[in-house]
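Hello,

I think I submitted the adenosine-5'-tetraphosphate job twice by accident. Can you confirm which output corresponds to this input? Input:
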Amino acid sequence: MVRLSAITPSGPVQLGNYLGAVRRWAVDGGEDDVYFISDLHAMTTSHNPSRLRALTREQLAVLIAAGVDPRSVSVQSDLVRELGALTWVLECTCTYGEAARMVQFKEKSVGRPSVRLSLLTYPVLMAADILLQGAREVPVGDDQRQHVELARALARRFNGTYGEVFAVPRAVVPPTAARVRDLADPSRKMAKSATDAAGTVFVLDPPDLVRRKIRRAVTDEVARVRYAPEEQPGLANLLEILAACTGGEPAALADGFTGYHDLKEATAEAVVEELRPVRERTRQLLDDPAELDRVRAHGAERTRDRCRHRLDAALRLSGLG
Ligand code: AQP
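Support: Only one job matched these inputs. Its output is below.
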């Protein structure tokens, strides 16, 4: 069973990406899975080329440092020719109505004619990512579920129209749908491209900065430590982060604290300790370009080998070549 997931280099890896996705890929992932840095997806909004390249490399290092099997990691653009070819075939399989119905596109494009055309078409590129690798399971958050449904529909339509080539993928909801919230504004999820970095803990932040950000986390006036996500979202976020780092349950952990200060200190230390090895190993990898280049080249070769027969069949059956 091939599972496929990705992280977009739209900013440095943040605590939510790590706890909600990368750490799980490290624990649950198998050699057959595909975990990749989706640098092509990062180009759907305005981007700086050298920053994109540097973030791609940094994210690759973080994945390996976090313990994701190096044999399962790759960079999306290393397959740009194969993906470009299949994306075209799938765009010729997809209707405009299907693409324009994507909620993410509607939300991000409303009243903004200057959005890139790629924001409309990238779910088709995502379908190509999934179908080329023969992925059966795609772990995604709710916001990406609709895109996996599109990949499913396109696989079925292609197979039904031209001949059986693609496995039909399905979205799977990660077992613990941990949603880390912004420390400065717990009504939002933590995001790597947040404009105000005060509420975002980045995996590579130095320990003192992590502590400062967590000490300044927005809480409330209730002055009682309990796990009540609706009434005390900031506090609940801290308890969930602490639970994710220590393996406990947020509600049970709440009983161990009498004041907010102690909870913040404990959470800060737990996060610093959780991230310490990842940060140190990432630094080593970034200082050793040969090792990173080797992993990246292997990932490119492996994903290319794996997709070749599907791409050739899809091109041939659809009347090309
Ligand atoms: N706050 C979060 N809590 C838990 N999981 C999260 N993920 C993202 N934010 C949180 C998960 O991280 C994986 C990679 O995410 P992505 O790069 O594909 O895109 P994203 O979800 O849009 O991530 P960001 O950090 O919010 O980036 P920007 O700022 O560019 O939008 C996914 O599995 C995602 O669910």
